[in-house]
Specification:
Length: 496
């Protein structure tokens, strides 16, 4: 993903601040040059890049700055704020209301990924417990209804369309009325796209909009066309009241930066971004977490949302076991299952501060998932007694024939089984340590609840488990401690 490339370039530019002995105007100019080059390469409009550079220079005045101020921190924060401004029009996005029909109409040019995005959005709300459905009012493109039907059936979402009716206004009205009467909460209407911004497209769009009176009109924008998005979005907004934007195809094009920054100029907030072809390659777009994730600073808020979706609080049995210092192979298997449920694996990694870019870099989504599944396959070949044994890996070292049997049963080498057991031993040691720390599972401030010396030991243990390069990327032990505090703080906020 090219935006990850942009993130890496800006992060390495910011990291160069740490290597400078004296922070002065030359260092700032060098940093801004690197940041601006990275933004221009990502196809961000040159006027916006120039504005960003001037704004940072205005904020950072070395002559006026008090002696005790942390100049590095101030420069980092100034760059962060300006990047946020680039993609934030400062308009609050519309939110659907539970328990009543919310009609959402999708508009955009042909080929922007509108039909797929309709299904992704319906699936997103379906997972959050909303009653969702789809209406296909695209009668212009051959096969549009078939595509929507196929997508909706796969995602188990009710849909409406017609092979005989040629008037999209009639289909849209009938479909919306049908689903309102059946008590659906999120009714998504897909409309026709054209190759160019033709008059007939806008007329049809207006007629549908007047007939169904949508609560929200979403403009679907293809990131691969870059800065050209701005003219498109303005043309649509001048005809219908575009209330929000979804940016698609952000998983592989150099022009992603241009598309994101073009949106701010239209005064319509981006509410979701499409990052792949699968139904769950779809993320809610929140500006600050997005920029912080781009810079490798993680997205704690998003991670907490994902964890809360799983309702892990219901798993009191595991928390009780942890408090007594118990953690079996079966518990590890269950944690792997939870990770699989959380959605795209690399997306989750990217939410963890300091981990994402490094760990996800070497492997594709499929490779990361395949590794996890392989470990679970090995555990599938273990007996219940082995999975539930409190001895864990010791049971296997006492009787090496068990390792041979598991390797044979799962079709892997003996060495791979041994590696799994080594990982489990390290993982279990940290988890048991966490379970033994009083106050770790309470809400509130971890620093008040937890004995500092115990916390320091836990951090050291975690540091030993990690790849040294990842630890360095996080800013060493102090970075790791900050991450633990951040996670605990965010978890406490989530419980409030």
């Amino acid at each position: 993903m090219v935006l990850a490339d942009l993130g890496r370039k800006i992060t390495s530019a910011l990291r160069s601040l740490g290597n400078a002995t004296i922070i002065n105007k030359e260092v700032l100019d060098g940093l801004l040059k690197e940041v601006c080059t990275a933004l221009l390469e990502a196809d961000v409009n040159i006027k916006l890049v120039k504005q960003l550079r001037e704004n940072v220079r205005q904020v950072i005045d070395f002559e006026e700055m008090a002696a005790g101020l942390n100049k590095r921190r101030m420069i980092q924060m100034a760059v962060f704020k300006e990047l946020v401004k680039l993609v934030d029009p400062g308009v609050k996005a519309w939110q659907p209301t539970k328990g009543r029909p919310n009609v959402i109409m999708f508009v955009g040019l042909q080929g922007s990924g509108k039909t797929t995005t309709c299904t992704k959005m319906a699936y997103y709300y379906l997972r959050k417990g909303w009653k969702c459905c789809l209406v296909c009012a695209d009668t212009f493109r051959a096969g549009a209804f078939d595509q929507l039907k196929q997508n909706a059936t796969k995602a188990r979402i009710p849909f409406y369309g017609s092979y005989t009716e040629s008037d999209p206004v009639v289909i849209a009205s009938e479909g919306v009325d049908k689903f309102i009467n059946e008590g659906f909460e999120i009714i998504i209407v897909d409309t026709s796209g054209r190759h160019k911004q033709e008059k007939s497209l806008f007329e049809e769009m207006l007629s549908i909009s007047n007939a169904i009176q949508p609560n929200l009109v979403i403009f679907v924008m293809d990131a691969s066309i870059g800065q050209a998005c701005e003219g498109q979005a303005r043309a649509f907004k001048s005809k219908v009241d575009v209330g929000a934007v979804v940016v698609t195809k952000l998983d592989g094009h150099a022009k992603g930066g241009g598309a994101l920054s073009a949106v701010a100029a239209t005064q319509s907030p981006i509410i979701f971004i499409g990052t792949g072809e699968h139904v769950d390659d779809f993320e809610q777009f929140k500006v600050k977490p997005f920029v912080s994730k781009l810079l490798g600073m993680g997205d704690i808020e998003g991670l907490i949302d994902k964890v809360n979706e799983l309702k892990l609080d219901d798993n009191e049995e595991l928390i009780e076991k942890l408090k007594h210092g118990e953690f079996t192979l079966r518990d590890m298997y269950e944690q792997f299952t939870n990770i699989m449920k959380m959605g795209p694996f690399n997306q989750i990694l990217n939410m963890i501060p300091g981990f994402g870019a490094e760990l996800a870099k070497g492997a594709s989504e499929a490779e990361s998932m395949a590794r996890l599944k392989r470990l679970m396959t090995i555990m599938d070949s273990m007996s219940d007694a082995e999975l539930d044994s409190r001895e864990g890996a010791k049971l296997f070292t006492k009787q090496s024939t068990r390792i041979v049997r598991v390797a044979r049963g799962s079709g892997v080498t003996v060495r791979e089984v041994q590696e799994l057991l080594t990982q489990y031993t390290k993982f279990a040691a940290v988890v048991k340590k966490m379970g033994g720390i009083k106050g770790l599972f309470k809400g509130g401030d971890m620093s008040k609840n937890v004995n500092p010396s115990q916390m320091a030991k836990l951090n050291q243990q975690m540091a030993k488990m990690m790849d040294p390069r990842v630890l360095q990327q996080m800013g060493g032990m102090s970075g790791l401690q900050n991450m633990m505090k951040q996670l605990q703080g965010a978890a406490a906020q989530a419980h409030k």
